[in-house]
Amino acid sequence: MNYFITTGSGESDLKSSHNETGSFDAALVNAGLTNVNLVYYSSMIPKKSKEIIKPNLEWGKVIGSIVSQNDGTPGQTISVGLLIKSRK
């Protein structure tokens, strides 16, 4: 399995009682993950996986994802992270 690492952040004033996607969508654009379908996995990348440079992603492609995400309120500073263990 190959994998790549990307980051993105987003901020939006869009509010809805049902769904707020403005900030998340902005983070996807910022991370270069527009027009793809994300499928979430738990938290493990197989041991023999190889890190690659992010490829050009075809529209509609299904991408397996391990996502670190946090939600906040306007004016609040939030952060998230992932632990990546070196195999060296």
Q: What order do the helices and strands come in, and which of them pair?
A:
Elements: E1 2-3, H1 22-31, E2 37-40, E3 50-51, E4 62-65
Parallel strand pairs: 1-3, 2-4
Describe this structure in words.
- This protein has 88 residues and is α/β, with parallel strands linked by helices.
- It has a single domain, classed as Pyruvoyl-Dependent Histidine Decarboxylase, subunit B (Pyruvoyl-Dependent Histidine Decarboxylase, Chain B).
- Helices cover 11% and strands 14% of the residues.
- The chain contains 1 helix and 4 strands.
- The protein has a two-stranded parallel ribbon with strand order 1-3. It has a two-stranded parallel sheet with strand order 2-4.
- The mean pLDDT is 81.
The total tally of domains equals 1
Low-confidence stretches: none
The profile of the biggest β sheet is: 2 strands, parallel
For the residues shown, what is the average pLDDT? 81
Summarize, please:
The protein is built from one helix and four strands; from the N terminus they run βαβββ.
Short descriptors:
88 residues; two-stranded parallel ribbon; Pyruvoyl-Dependent Histidine Decarboxylase, Chain B; alpha/beta
